[in-house]
Amino acid sequence: MPVVTVYGVLPSPFCRPVLMTAKAVGVDVEMKTTSPLTGDTHKPEYLEMNPRHNIPTMDDDGYILTESRAIMCYLVDKFGEDDDPLFPKDPQLRNRILERMLFDVGCLSQRCYDYYNREWIFGDGDLDESKLAPLTEAMGFLDKYLEDSSWVAGDNMTLADIGLCVTLIQLEVFGMDFEPYANVTRWYEACKTDVPGFDEINEEGVKIFKAIINK
Predict the structure, then answer these.
(1) Which of 7, 62, 108, 152 could link 138 by a cystine bridge, Cβ 3.0 to 4.6 Å?
(2) Where is the GST N-terminal domain (predicted)?
């Protein structure tokens, strides 16, 4: 079985989708614990790989790649099946998946952390109530995407579902109510049973993350 090295930490909602994708395509991951909270990402050897000092970073036999969604796409392209349904070759399907992945990191996830901000997470501040309406709007977008399909980019589970379900896990940990979003609720329940590594990879990471925010 092929092996790649991933630098990051399990509590990170940006690392877990990479690990879930690796599991889906049958790649072993050597996880090298690298935490922004302890200064690991500012060490010279890490900055040489990733000047932006974020996580995750992947090393595949000397090929370095950063940004979680780029790593996910790479793993399927290199190690997945030919025309893998997680990220198929058809340009319309492929770019629909990319659209939803960019919605995740550029809209839903961003608005999640605008509202549930770093200061609140670490117990040093309050929620920014002015950011709640944009977050609920983004949840409405996701609910609309799921109106006529089982998965966020069509009838098959794709990389977009893997990334977005981890964002939903974070929102659930923070205490957001999904009841107003019937399509999201139905899809999220399907993710729990059908997305590779949903329990195995997220359980420990969420446990550690909860310990951080409950301090």
Answers:
(1) 108
(2) 2-83
pLDDT tens digits for range 117-165:
988 988 888 999 999 999 999 999 999 999 999 999 999 999 999 999 9
Q: Cis omega (within 30 of 0) on the bond before 2?
A: no
Query: How much is the pTM?
Result: 0.95
Instruction: For residue 12, indicate whether it is catalytic.
Output: yes
CA nearest to 97, candidates 73, 125, 66, 123: 73
Sign of the alpha-carbon torsion through 171, 176, 180, 186: positive
User: Would you tell me how many other CB atoms lie within 10 Å of the CB of residue 179?
Assistant: 8
Encode burial over 78-112: b for 16+ CB neighbours within 10 A, e otherwise. ebbeeebbbbbeeeebbebbbebbebbbebbbebb
Which domains, ranges and CATH numbers included, belong to the chain? 4-79 (3.40.30.10), 91-213 (1.20.1050.10)
Tell how strand 28-33 and strand 63-66 pair up: unpaired
Cα separations (Å) of 161 from 18, 184, 213?
12, 11, 25
- Phi and psi at 105, nearest 5°, equal -75, -30
Task: Evaluate whether 30 touches 2 at the Cβ level (below 8 Å).
Answer: no
